[in-house]
């Protein structure tokens, strides 16, 4: 972990990048930020900060699209997530830091590869698919800070368009991150760090919105997934090195 002003600058930069890609593509804060945050702050603090920041971004993003939320689909997704969030939070408190880094990095890496492949999974269709995706997302969100990939796979298999996916993903993000913060608590950051995180989120949001009409969605999505994959592999390597 890196401390001092260098750590503060890195923290702000990570949050700014994550916020930018979240506003640019409708997803990606946790995928991009979590691997770097757990390397900078440690697994536990990195995850809970990601939960807090992703939850706030989802609340702001949902304000303009809540009418497009499919509540019928969201109920089983969110209910299943609520059941598995405690298990993920318990796991983060039981494993040694190197093992936790290894597990988190592996979860991110596998999830990103599945999304990159556009995996078609018959089990992720209908109500049973929503329950499976919600349960996996809740566990991954509280354990590793990354609950979006299972929901992306569910939406892909359900045939949702991007316009349909974004507000529903934001609604899910609000709920699952609220549960995760309740289970994991909030990070113990100093006041200056909290201020820098808030400023970085605001600036990142402005950058993302400004670039959203200039960068093709497909290219932006590929960039997000590539950054997430690199971060996941790095976390796996650091975990293996610490064993």
What does this structure look like?
- There is one protein chain.
- By secondary structure, this protein is mainly α.
- Helices cover 82% and strands 0% of the residues.
- The protein has ten helices and no strands.
- Helix 1 runs antiparallel to helix 2, helix 2 (29-41) runs antiparallel to helix 3 and helix 2 runs parallel beside helix 10.
- The chain is globular.
Quick summary:
Helices cover 82% and strands 0% of the residues.
Strand content: under 5%
Number of strands: 0
Mean pLDDT: 80
| Percent helix | over 70%
What is the overall silhouette?
globular
End-to-end C-alpha gap: 16 Å
Radius of gyration: 16 Å
Q: What quaternary form is this?
A: single chain
* Order of H and E elements: HHHHHHHHHH
How many H/I helical runs? 10
Biggest sheet details: none
Specify the structural class: mainly alpha
Unreliable runs, pLDDT <50, ≥5 residues?
Answer: none
